[in-house]
Amino acid sequence: MRAPQAASSRFTSAPYVLVAPLALVLVVFFGIPLVLVVVVSFFDLDKFDIIPTFVLTNYSELLSSPLTYTLYAKTIKYALIVWAITLVIGFTVSYFLVFHVRSILWQMGLFLLCTVPFWTSNVIRMISWIPLLGRHGLLNQSLIALGLADHPLEFLLFSDFSVVIAYVHLFSLFMIVPIFNSMARIERAVIEAAVDGGASRFRVITDIVIPLSRTGIALGSIFVIALVMGDFFVVKVMSGGQSASVVAAMSNEIAILQYPPAAANAVCLLTIVTLMVAVIMRVVDVRRELSG
Amino acid sequence: MVTRSSNGRPWTFYALAAFFTLFVLFLYGPMSAIFILSFQGPNGGLTFPMNGVSLHWFGALFAQQRSGDFVGSFSRSIALAILVLAMTVVISIMAGLAFRYRFACATAVFYMAIASLIMPGLLLGLGVGLMFQFAGIRPAWFSSALGAQLTWTLPFGLLIMFAVFSRFNRVYEEAARDLGARQWQTLWHVVLPILLPGIIGVALFGFTLSYDEFPRTVIPIGSRNTLPLEIWAMTTDVTSPALYALGTLTTAVSFVVIAAALTSIALIQRRRARRQRGHPDARRGGAEALPRTAGVRVGADAGDA
Amino acid sequence: MAQAGEIELRHITKRFDQTLAVDDISLTIPHGSYCCLLGPSGCGKTTILRMIAGHEAPTSGDIRLGGESVVGLPPARRGTAMMFQNYALFPHLNVLDNVAFNLKMRGVRRAERHERAREMLAQVQLDRRFSERMPAQLSGGQQQRVALSRALITKPRVLLLDEPLSALDEFLRLQMRGELRRMQRELGITFVHVTHTQLEAIAVADLVVVMDQGRIEQAASAHEIYTLPASAYVARFMGGQNVLTGTVVTIDGGVATLVDGSGARFATPVKSPAPAVGQEIACCVRRDRVDIEKLRGPSPSPGEATNVAAGTVHAIEYQGSYVKVTIDVLESEQVVAHLADHAFLATPLDIGDAVLARWATEDVYLLTGDLTHPPTGVRPGPLQGRESRSRNL
């Protein structure tokens, strides 16, 4: 974001006019709703009616319930597992595309192949696992036919396993895209210089590729963690109602119009997600590297 | 990779290629399963084996009593997606232009966009729903749902515009000014055409992110569903391959849109492509311009900036 | 009244934040002349060009074109046209539309503007069959012709060229620089050409402006710059000269004798006002006026002779028509001699040979510029690059 050379010296209203629509939409549909959620989290609840007042009961009930901690632990566990898996996938796939695919055309083609599902419906992609993993699904049928199992494996669907599978399926693209992008910017000459300097293939990865793709890794991590922490539908469908997450519990409260407790829950979740993102941003100055 | 001297590929290539192939199978396998199952015979079930092949379940979609308001939700989704696309393109371009200047609240707007992107969708929907409730306005797809979706598409649009502008060489603007173009002429005849592949990328994001949006839309949608919400409802009620037929149809629409966008980007790129056997110096002429990468890397740009 | 294409810079200063890019420059470029701004990168030459074009505003000072101040006017209303480095051809427009761009902005009808663009392309000798091509499909030389016709279609009184030849290979560079010169003669307008290549400037320009660190070192004809450099900096930067520095010990009959740090004595003709005895001065002698004598003995000593430097051969480079011999001189700057190839072959030298370099007093030229310039470390400047560059030539 360099300032235009001719315009930088004198004041101009142009950027304010140009950024106004974006700022307006964000303030109205993100800023105000966010404030409202915080405000409502202090409201009281009488059956299904919201009472505008200031109480801390929503928070005290939330924080005193052991179920809350179980839910948060479960959600964070999902987030960390999915983060680790998608990080490995994202790094490996990008590394393959950037450093092993020689033709630029093939590289772009294969990259697009990875990104196309990103532009299709998440709900559809999630439910597409059901006919595969179910009790009578394709995987169980094949295992039995091959004699690898004598009865259908129950853990495949409606379990933590299927939840994680679906998360990885939906969100690994968010890791691949930024990592690929920052890796693609690494100059080949840098790698060759490292090899000439006697670096092994492994040391090239740890000493050159990882540090130089840290922006992508950080961005991908932010996306994946925020997406898993904010999910409710994958965990609802893929666990078959046996597991839950923070937002899934919240959506149940919303469904029965329990807005203030849901809002208190939302504020807690937002705080945790913000902290996680802040930690990542602290490790890698994403903004500076983006605008450079 | 690293050892490029010989023609043979190192073993790591084959290991990584195998990994990549498995990953692609993992990505597309389940989708192809429901694609196949959507052609299930009339008596077929939700899983394999196929019990005949038919278009029965596609027909069932259009019989409203069976699977809800498919036609209505589909047309609403398309209308909403086009609205979101238009607004995302215009607002993102304007914001992208704005961020080329230094201005007072640039950092604040940037972080607000990022926060809006990572905010759990349902929470944002809850907030928008509360806002409309307090304001006494009935939520509807063209008001509350539209706003909620823009908080998702605009940050993406902004990030793509960052990437696009970071590759844009300002010398074209100077050249245009030198040749007598006014500011808006420069924008219209030079900047926007050169950035067109990136702008198509923004449009693609705007459309598909809206068309498939679910968590942000579910609360502020009001009484009439969009297609993803309809599918979501079906996952709990409908236990027939009609669900898969719907999935196949909506994915087909997505693919048509993606293909149209990518094809137009590719056509623009090819029109501007440098000749392979061109003079080596030709490469330097416009090399800093963006055409080479902007469009093809559209996907990459998402996370990039 | 100044003629239309006369450019006058009056006390132009340009700052970027804390950096002083152009430092109080005054210069008049006559109408219809070919002027080269020459200097190492970062010397401010491109900034001056951009200020004339209107892409940059001076921090202070006035720019006059044809006698009228243009500061604050948009580029298109100055009667200037710029040919950008790497040409900046619009990648989304074909050749014809690139050339016709200015006419399109002015609302000229399609048929007419294409017709005029074709005429313009013919004038720069670009084949008709290229007119539908995209810029990326052209070679560097063709791109340059398109850029030239795109600039000339605006009928400018001043054409500004920013490193116009740097994107071309050696062969095309020589060809195109001749064509630029020919175009300038034909059109009779002012050309201002920015370059960092000495030979390019000398080959085309009526007026060469040598710049360093935001200031003009010398503005004169190519011949004068080359043979009568104004300062040690110009002498070194242009190459072709050996710069001698020392303290004046005697002045006698229009000849000053100086002694350098190693005790060697040099003589130089002086004009009035003559330097005072005891003053530190610099003079130069052309490399092709230096003779070399091979010594038998191992330890060369110039003794009391003037205009002799003793040293050992450091490098010998064959340059085609002459041989460049570099000599290490004890406690002093290297001396470079350009020897005619037949003279060299008559008495061949080897690296490490002890030699005496000698020259005639009448070939020495007194440098008047600031001896201590450049002030090392005061302002950022590519000192390193400059020194190595001047040594190479």
Name the features:
heterotrimer; A: 292 residues; mainly alpha; MetI-like fold; two-stranded antiparallel ribbon; 15 helices; 2 strands; disordered N terminus; C: 393 residues; alpha+beta; Rossmann fold; OB fold (Dihydrolipoamide Acetyltransferase, E2P); 2 domains; six-stranded mixed β-sheet; five-stranded antiparallel β-sheet; 11 helices; 25% helix; elongated; disordered C terminus
Word description of this protein:
The complex is a heterotrimer of chains A (292), B (305) and C (393). With 292 residues, chain A is mostly helical. Chain A has a single domain (62-291), classed as MetI-like fold (Orthogonal Bundle). Helix content of chain A is 72%, strand content 2%. Chain A has 15 helices and two strands. Chain A has helices at 14-40, 57-64, 66-100, 104-115, 122-127, 130-133, 138-145, 160-184, 188-196, 201-212, 214-229, 233-238, 246-255, 259-283, 286-291, and strands at residues 44-46, 49-51. Chain B has one domain (65-304): Orthogonal Bundle (MetI-like fold). The longest helix of chain B is centred in the last third of the chain and has 31 residues, at 242-272. Chain C folds into two domains: 7-226, P-loop containing nucleotide triphosphate hydrolases (Rossmann fold); 228-392, OB fold (Dihydrolipoamide Acetyltransferase, E2P) (Beta Barrel). In chain C, strand 7, helix 6 and strand 8 form a beta-alpha-beta unit. The relative contact order of chain C is 0.12. Chain A binds chain C through residues 5-6, 9, and chain C through 55-57.
Brief overview:
In chain B, 70% of the residues lie in helices and 0% in strands. By secondary structure, chain B is mostly helical. Chain B has a single domain (65-304), classed as MetI-like (MetI-like fold, Orthogonal Bundle).
